[in-house]
Specification:
Elements lengths: L1 H21 L4 H10 L4 E9 L2 E8 L2 E8 L4 E6 L8
Antiparallel strand pairs: 1-2, 2-3, 3-4
Length: about 90
């Protein structure tokens, strides 16, 4: 049983990595993002829809999400809100 759990876990991890590596970010989008946000760090890309790419990144101590079309056209950027919970 333990062996089965390990095999299933390994397959899940392998599948997740394969999916991430299969995202083929267009060069136009990479260049447009780099031109617009040269100080961005910790950039994570996701395919938002058929023709839009979403970048989540950090810049100046804040987290942002920017959306670009396949041809590199910038659509919008929004700053993520930080929620602080107090007891």
């Amino acid at each position: 049983m333990k062996f089965l759990k390990i095999v299933i876990g390994a397959l899940f991890i392998f599948g997740s990595v394969a999916f991430v590596l299969s995202i083929n970010l267009p060069q136009d989008v990479k260049e447009a993002f780099s031109d617009k946000y040269p100080k961005a760090t910790s950039v994570q890309w996701d395919k938002d829809s058929y023709s839009q790419w979403q970048a989540e990144f950090n810049m100046d101590g804040q987290t942002y999400i920017a959306i670009f079309q396949d041809d590199g056209t910038w659509m919008t950027t929004k700053k993520e809100k930080v929620l602080i919970f107090r007891d």
